[in-house]
Design a protein that fits this description.
The protein has about 150 residues and is α+β, with helices and mostly antiparallel strands. The protein has one domain. It contains three helices and four strands. Strands 1-2-3-4 form a four-stranded mixed beta sheet, with helices on one face. Strand 3 and strand 4 form a beta hairpin. The longest helix has 23 residues. About 15% of the residues are buried. The N terminus is likely disordered.
Length: about 150
C-alpha cells in the first residue's frame, strides 16, 4: 500500500508542473487547416472564419501562418448526433517533420502537440468557435511559456 501511495504521489508531483508532454520551443511557423470529415457542421465560410481567427491569434505572438516546411496546425471537428443534441469533439494538433535519433537519423512525421475538447451542443457554430478559441489559447500559453521574449 505504501508503494502505491508513493507512486501516486510521485506521478502527481511530476505532472503538476508540466503543461503538456509536448514542446513548442523554437516554433516559427505553421500552416493552418480546419477539418470536418462529415462536412455537416462546417461550411467553407465558417472554416475560413475560424482559420482567420486562429491566424490572427498566432501572428499576435509571433508565429507565422505560412511555413515552407511540413508544420500543420490542424483543427479537427467530429460530431455525433443524439436524440436531444450533438456530441462534439474538437482536436488541435501540431503535426511536423522530425528527425529521430537512431543508428541512422530517420526523418518522420510526428504529432508534436495535441489537445482536445469534448462537449454537448445545441448551437454548434458558437460552441465550436468557443472550443477552438479555448484550445488555441492553451496552445499560445504554452508557446509563450517555452519561448520567452
Amino acid at each position: 500500500m505504501r508503494f502505491f501511495a508513493a507512486c501516486l504521489l510521485c506521478a502527481l508531483c511530476n505532472s503538476a508542473f508540466a503543461l503538456t508532454p509536448f514542446s513548442l520551443e523554437g516554433l516559427e511557423g505553421v500552416n493552418i487547416t480546419v477539418l470536418n470529415k462529415k462536412h455537416k457542421v462546417l461550411d467553407d465560410a465558417f472554416k475560413k472564419s475560424l482559420e482567420a481567427d486562429i491566424a490572427s491569434k498566432l501572428k499576435a505572438v509571433g508565429i507565422k501562418t505560412s511555413s515552407p516546411t511540413f508544420s500543420n496546425f490542424l483543427i479537427k471537428v467530429q460530431e455525433n448526433q443524439t436524440e436531444k443534441n450533438t456530441l462534439c469533439r474538437v482536436t488541435l494538433s501540431l503535426i511536423e517533420n522530425v528527425h529521430i535519433s537512431r543508428k541512422n537519423t530517420v526523418e518522420a512525421i510526428a504529432i508534436t502537440f495535441s489537445k482536445e475538447d469534448s462537449f454537448e451542443s445545441n448551437d454548434l457554430e458558437a460552441d465550436i468557435r468557443e472550443s477552438v478559441g479555448f484550445l488555441v489559447d492553451e496552445f499560445i500559453d504554452q508557446y509563450k511559456e517555452e519561448n520567452p521574449k
